[in-house]
Amino acid sequence: MCKLIIVDDEPNVISGIKSVIDWECNGIDVCATANNGQDALDIIRRVHPDIALMDIKMPNMTGLELLQVINENGLKVKVIFLSGYDDFDYARLALRYGACDYLLKPCMPEEILKAVLNAKEIVEKDKRIEFAVIRDRNLIESSVSSASKNINVVLKTALDYIHENYSKDLNLKLVADKVFITSGYLSLLFKKELDINFVDYLNKYRIEMSKKLLADLKYKTYEVAYKVGFKDEKYFSQIFKKCTNLTPREFRNSMQ
């Protein structure tokens, strides 16, 4: 179930929202409530709710201020604002700061439920994406780890350098120079210890790192390509297809 926190400085609003909607039937657990922004922040840090339904104007810390702190601290909670202010500037700021929705009081229960369920869908999608990315990364690390049990120490150093700098302009000679061996010897180590050549290994690692970025719709394909070290979008797409049997667009669509 998705965890929901309700934040409002009017206790009757909180009790009304809790009682008028059958949250459990809709897969929502109202895990906490708060009467002001500061208390809400403390609870969010401790309980880690998925969704926060909160008033935009509150004592101690406004809803907008709380959302800024949430963003600055990387807290993973989707925010829906309730407001008695029919003010375009409030709505614009709320959406700019990353709010999922902005509802005007008084709200019908159906409106509130719809907004929360939309946020729940986003939460579940993000969790699916995070699981796929973690799984793929673990597969890479597992294969590297098993191969590294008896691996040459120099090769391990080279792999660490690649993992830390894959987004940069790398080539065999540059990496070989970093670990103080010849490019020919490093190439031999890749083929002997990992059964793969340098370029293929680097490309596969970059493709795995690109998957999380592709899942985020704010990045265009060419931006993802550059962020993981490819200079050419077309080449990136070719390598992605070779490694995954999907184009970047097909992969992105499969995650929606």
Give structural notes.
With 256 residues, the chain is α/β, with parallel strands linked by helices. It folds into 2 domains: 2-125, Response regulator (Rossmann fold), CATH 3.40.50; 148-254, Arc Repressor Mutant, subunit A. It is built from 12 helices and 5 strands. The chain has helices spanning 11-20, 37-47, 63-72, 88-96, 109-147, 153-165, 172-178, 183-194, 198-215, 221-227, 233-244, 248-254; strands at 2-7, 28-34, 51-55, 78-83, 101-104. It has a 5-stranded parallel sheet with strand order 2-1-3-4-5, with helices on both faces. α2 (37-47) packs parallel to α3 and α5 (109-147) runs antiparallel to α9. The radius of gyration is 24 Å and the shape is elongated. The model has no long low-confidence stretch (mean pLDDT 87).
